[in-house]
Amino acid sequence: xxxxxxxxxxxxxxxxxxxxxxxxxxxxxxxxxxxxxxxxxxxxxxxxxxxxxxxxxxxxxxxxxxxxxxxxxxxxxxxxxxxxxxxxxxxxxxxxxxxxxxxxxxxxxxxxxxxxxxxxxxxxxxxxxxxxxxxxxxxxxxxxxxxxxxxxxxxxxxxxxxxxxxxxxxxxxxxxxxxxxxxxxxxxxxxxxxxxxxxxxxxxxxxxxxxxxxxxxxxxxxxxxxxxxxxxxxxxxxxxxxxxxxxxxxxxxxxxxxxxxxxxxxxxxxxxxxxxxxxxxxxxxxxxxxxxxxxxxxxxxxxxxxxxxxxxxxxxxxxxxxxxxxxxxxxxxxxxxxxxxxxxxxxxxxxxxxxxxxxxxxxxxxxxxxxxxxxxxxxxxxxxxxxxxxxxxxxxxxxxxxxxxxxxxxxxxxxxxxxxxxxxxxxxxx
Length: 430
Description:
It contains 15 helices and 14 strands. With 430 residues, the chain is an alpha/beta fold.
């Protein structure tokens, strides 16, 4: 007698558009890797990253799990509906189903609200026993500890990413920015994994390039410093995301550089008004002081700017470009304010009647989806285009690069990669 076939799980990362050659610079889905790691060995697990391949609709799966952010939601629903039409149960998870479970529930047999780690085993058990629930809701994290299953990078085999050596050391954030969903859904404190666990994962890597996927890796310096000190001897070259305030501590900046950091993404958000003095940037030093300290340590600093806050008028674009010319971060990135569902900003704009639509695929940082307070939507869009184009002229690039004397080639390479997409931008609002 033949042994029964193992149950099969398909994990899908939806794509909203074709990336061409740029797909080789993408990172794999950390959330789906964790779900795969949580799945018992008795299951056959298949990953489909739609950035790299077509969805295998006809391969006979027991369960399909789909993760999605807001801009991916419509495509996720299309995939889910297609599988359910074949009688295959679908679970939807990720931040968009977490903040809008009722909407997502119209396209799924089950919804995972919040983090999957405490829920996934029970969900699979319920499925195999014919009692799958409609909603699985994780408890809101309440302490400073984070426990994750061992990584399972074998599901990325055969796919071309910038690197598959990605990890999370922490989750959560106490700052509760009105345009961010981290605090309400992942806890109002920094939760870190045990240092020994993080370092064991780092030592298992066979390549140098590593990316931390934390929202704020350096948010708690007392807990980050021991990890950085141990990383110094591992020969890593790593990048991650943090808030600018970490540079208030000169010792921490030195540890970040010595540990092998080649680049940090920080959210400056705005160069004027209350968002320029958010608690994330502190008050002891100016933003320019902190940018210079990071730059002088030889770390590539990617400074993220957001246009469209209620105190932004038509002068914000010129002020921002001139400010960046003076303080010279390694490279700037520019985004349009996007009121994502689940944020207090979304609730505010929705109650004020300022949202133009809820076409989620257009909630992507590159389209104006709300009515600005002090300028027209067209002016906001065109100012964003203008700032991007001006910041990535060759004179602007060379000026930034040669003011960052450590790692000129690395700085130049980063800027050239950013210049390509900027050169393809339209000349005016569509």
